[in-house]
Amino acid sequence: MNTITVTHPTGSYPIYLAENALNHAGTWLAELGHAGRCAVVTNETVGPLHGSTLLASLQSAGFEPTQIELPDGEQYKNLDTVANLYSQLIEAKLDRNSPIIALGGGVVGDTVGFAAASYLRGVPFVQIPTSLLAMVDASVGGKTGVDLPQGKNLVGAFKQPEMVLIDPNVLNTLPDVEFRSGMAEVLKHGVLSGESLFEALEINSQKPETQAKPHYILSTELLHDAVMVKVEVVQEDPFEKGRRGILNLGHTFAHAFERLANFEMRHGDAVAIGMVCATRLAVRLGHCSAKTAHRIEAVITQVGLPTQIPDYAPADMWAAMFTDKKRVGNTVRFILPITIGDVGIFTDVQAEDVLAILAGEYVNV
Ligand SMILES: NC(=O)c1ccc[n+]([C@@H]2O[C@H](COP(=O)([O-])OP(=O)(O)OC[C@H]3O[C@@H](n4cnc5c(N)ncnc54)[C@H](O)[C@@H]3O)[C@@H](O)[C@H]2O)c1
Ligand SMILES: [Zn+2]
């Protein structure tokens, strides 16, 4: 088993990464000093697949768990779902010391984390991410929250978990299309971290078994390395004041595509195309070599993610970047690759350069 310790401003917590970790959840939660009632909050898709394994593990360690199922989908990541969840937690007689365990993808983790931060002014919280995206991104870093009709993630709280449990076996039930979406963030972490992870992903992406089933690209070791990239960045910048911005590689473009598609575009697809655009922009501005750009585009394609810029008017895509909540003043911030393992944060990129990339004026020299 791999144990990663994450330190944050008010303490630290373990990430346990191991095959069949779900079966050990009860023992590990008891080791943290918990007992008695607890809630497993999942959704109607993940609950029937993995809920009973988790419940059995909790029961055999002496817990009295209640399973609560939320509806599945980003459209339910809202305050109505949270209000409903509070009622069910009260009904299940959960008190201030009762842990709430989120079992699911990023939607479940964000919603349940926010409820755990606010129910009775905060109760112990455990993350059991079941999608690849949630394992390598959403479950690490303490950000929780829900969407408002006006936009995504507009209400939330920093809520650090007591423990994160990653069981790679649960990925076996994750649909390929969701796995690929998570791979966009893994590839992003590869670009951020350096040759060792990126090269391994390049090699694995070319294997015939990966072409048949994308899940074969990631060994448990590579999953661990991808999680570590996020851990290291958030430890350095827990409240997103500076360096954590590098995790937004490809996201300035991605958020614009998603907004124009009314969020009907999968996040990983948007990030993949966004990384392609960021890389081409970096080449155009002389920050990145064409060879590096070629490697990044090649691995994205190899994984089966899209690279084609959507068909919106470039001016509309550029305008959509200005409504990004991560915008700083009147400038749009771009995270651009410099080389594998090094990116820069640029706030002085000119509109004409971005528009040229969005219009497809890019020659791979
Ligand atoms: N808090 C953060 O720092 C952070 C970071 C990145 C993303 N997010 C949020 O995460 C959300 C996206 O997360 P996501 O991509 O996991 O989406 P998701 O939670 O909607 O999961 C995708 C789909 O896969 C299903 N699923 C999950 N695990 C499964 C499994 N093991 N087997 C079968 N089906 C499974 C889900 O039920 C869902 O239908 C967004 O709301 C985003 O804002 C948060
Ligand atoms: Zn993302």
Report what the structure shows.
The chain is an alpha/beta fold. The protein has 2 domains: 2-172, Rossmann fold (3-Layer(aba) Sandwich); 176-358, Up-down Bundle (Dehydroquinate synthase-like, alpha domain). It has helices at residues 25-31, 46-60, 79-91, 106-118, 132-138, 176-193, 195-205, 208-212, 220-236, 251-260, 267-284, 290-302, 314-321, 351-358; strands at 2-8, 11-17, 37-43, 64-70, 100-104, 125-129, 143-148, 151-158, 163-166, 334-339, 342-346. A 7-stranded mixed β-sheet has the order 1-2-9-6-5-3-4, with helices on both faces. Strands 7-8 form a two-stranded antiparallel sheet. A two-stranded antiparallel sheet has the order 10-11. α11 (267-284) runs antiparallel to α12 (290-302) and α13 crosses α14 (351-358). The longest helix has 18 residues, at 176-193. The protein starts with a strand and ends in a 7-residue tail after the last helix. The relative contact order is 0.10.
Could you give a short description of this structure?
With 365 residues, the protein is an alpha/beta fold. Helices cover 45% and strands 18% of the residues.
Q: SSE layout and pairings?
A:
Blueprint: E1 2-8, E2 11-17, H1 25-31, E3 37-43, H2 46-60, E4 64-70, H3 79-91, E5 100-104, H4 106-118, E6 125-129, H5 132-138, E7 143-148, E8 151-158, E9 163-166, H6 176-193, H7 195-205, H8 208-212, H9 220-236, H10 251-260, H11 267-284, H12 290-302, H13 314-321, E10 334-339, E11 342-346, H14 351-358
Helix pairs in contact: 1-2, 3-4, 5-6, 6-7, 6-9, 6-11, 10-11, 10-13, 11-12, 11-14, 13-14
Number of strands: 11
Bound molecules: nicotinamide-adenine-dinucleotide, zinc ion
Number of helices: 14
**Fourth-level CATH superfamily of the largest domain:** Dehydroquinate synthase-like - alpha domain
